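The records we work with from here on pair a chain with its fold. These numbers are not coordinates but entries in a learned vocabulary of local backbone shapes. To see the layout at work, look at the sequence and tokens printed below.

. . .
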Amino acid sequence: MTDSSNENKLRVKKYLGLENVSILAGAGTSWHLGAPVIRSIPDGLIQTCEKDINTYFGEGKNPSFEDLMNCLQADRFIKEKKGESTTEIDDSIKNMQKWLFDNCNTEKTKLNITDNERLNKNRYHFHETFVKRLLQRPNNLKRANLFTTNYDMAFDYALDNLGIHYINGFMGVHNRCFRPEVYDYDLYYPGQSVTGKVHRAEKVLKYYKIHGSLSWLATKPSVSNTYGIKEIPLNNEFKVEDDNELMVYPCVSKKSFTLDLPYSELFRQFSQAINQPQSVLFCVGYSFYDEHINDIIKQALSIPSFTLIIANFSPVKDPNSPIEELRKLKDKRIIILDETDSSQSTFIGFIDNIMPDLYEEEENEAIEETIQKLYEAKTSNPKESIISNEPNEIIEENIQEEDSDDLPF
């Protein structure tokens, strides 16, 4: 590990100890799983969407997946108001959603990295490691917030594999509906007696998919589902019944288009989380090309105690990229890991070399302190230095601490 990596690892360790910690995970956190980057229309979809692209953007253009979806849905909204047929637009939207489902379903995608033993053994290894280290923060601090712009289910599967309870804005078992008040809930378990203290549950994370999910469906509102947003188990076949549609940003409902629920609520939660005092936002795999998200981050930079840490790999440094524009501010609260250094700024590199394993760090520090005190003992008898009272007390204390810690993993 380089000196730069060691320095950044110490920085990250310090900021993980703040009261308010949030993560923004972008497309770069799923790239190694084979999930596509949809900043532009992917090659496999261009031919299918060529007619729509020419209609809304002109020949030779290559808009983002989300921009084209937005145009289709907005056009459909207008045609519905005029009483015109929307069959052709409906078919285009369904084709795009089917492509999105097939290519963002990380259970079926082909790995982009094939020579990593840990990844071949468990494709969610790095997502699981990331979450485990995030949850090693002291339990008396506020819950960590994990925001992601990805539609895929990589973090969902990792959280399930680890048995972690995540609060994602949905409530129910067989009929899971969007209820934003869930984000204000937390989990506790009772003490040994009825009057005993309650204890805060460990292994709990607040999880926000701010651009939607492959497992969300827009359905007709009902008494039991006021917002008409339902979460379903994800299988390996794309199937949308009746008028239900995948909820992916920007989604047009029957009532309006632009940012309707749940997105308005999710962005509000994002703004509230990072605008708290003593907050840090780790941006991992996020390229800063979403203006609606960038505006919220810029607002947070008006708070003196806010810190922004960016890890986003780019093989060639673009002097005009949004991240470079942030670097030019020369604000010490903005920490940008070297974009061209894959050992720091890729998702895998960040986990392996930058994000600390707090339990391992504490253990190593305790061992180092013990050894140092052992050899610093001033005695003429080497045997006495090993069995002297002070070192024994230190070792015994460390053993007791390890026994008493209720480690979540």
